[in-house]
Amino acid sequence: MTIRVLLADDEALVRAGLRMILEAEPGIDVVGEAADGADAVTMCRELQPDVALVDLRMPRIDGIQAARRITSDPALGTAVVMLTTFDTDEHVVDALRAGATGFLLKSMPRDQLVTAVRAAASGEKLLAPALLRRLLEDFVSRAVTVPAPGLDDLTPREEEVLRLMARGLSNAEIAASLVLGEGTVKTHVARVLAKLGVRDRVQAVVAAYESGLVRPGRSDGGFGHQ
C-alpha cells in the first residue's frame, strides 16, 4: 500500500529536499506541496494524504493551527508530523495538544525521516525520539501541575502502562516489560485514552506530565506518582 504524503513548508528548497528523499523510497508518494498553513489544510481535504509533514512556523496559518484543523476534521485520517529547525522550540506542547503525532528536526538523517513517515502512516505516535521527550520534560516541567480528568479512574495497571507510554515504549515493548500479551496492552492503552478523554498516545503523555504522574529528571527514568 502506497503512503501518500503532503509537504507543508514555506521554503521551497526544504520541500524539494523532503520530496527527493521520500520519493526515492518504495511505497511512498508525495501527492502535494503547500507553502503555508492555509494551503496545507485545503490540500489535505482535497488530496486526503496519509501523512502531512507540516512546518511549525508558516505564514497565514502556522503549523499549530493547521494541525488542529487537519486532525479535528472528521473527514480526514491524516497524521500530522511537525517539522522544526530548533530542538528547543517552545511551542511543542501546543502542537501536541493540537493533534500532532510528533516532531522531527529539519536536520534529521534521511533514514529517520522515512522511518517517521512509515510509523505515522501505520498509526504509531512518534514518542521515541529524544527530541520529543526532551521538549516535553523541558516545557511541561515549567507549568503548574494540572489534574488530568479521568486520571483517578485509571487502574494501577493502566497507570503503569501510561508511565511506560510516556517513556516512548511501543505496545510490544510494554508487553515485554510487563510480561503481558500485546493484545492485552492494546486494550489497556485504549482504556487509558478513553478515561483521559484524549485523542492519542501523545496527548495522553502530555496529560501525564501536566498532572504530575510523570515527572522529568528522575534517575529511575523520570516517573513517579504525586
Fill in the keyword field for this structure:
alpha/beta, disordered C terminus, five-stranded parallel β-sheet, single chain, DNA-binding, Rossmann fold, Arc Repressor Mutant, subunit A, 226 residues
Could you give the count of β-strands?
5
Q: Helix and strand succession?
A: EHEHEHEHEHHHHHH
Low-confidence stretches: 218-226
Q: Whole-Å distance between the termini?
A: 45 Å
CATH C-level label of the largest domain: Alpha Beta
How many helices? The count is 10
Number of domain units: 2
Mean pLDDT: 82
The CATH homologous superfamily of the largest domain is termed Response regulator
Q: Report the C-alpha radius of gyration, rounded.
A: 17 Å
Would you tell me the structural class of the helices and strands? alpha/beta
At CATH level 3, the topology of the largest domain is Rossmann fold
Biggest sheet character: 5 strands, parallel
Give the neighbour order of strands across the main sheet: 2-1-3-4-5
Portion of residues in beta strands equals 5-15%
Overall form:
globular
Q: Return the CATH architecture of the largest domain.
A: 3-Layer(aba) Sandwich
State the share of residues found in helices, binned by percent.
40-55%
Keywords: DNA-binding, Phosphoprotein, Transcription, Transcription regulation
Modified residues (4-aspartylphosphate): 55
Protein name: Response regulator transcription factor
Domain Response regulatory: 4-121
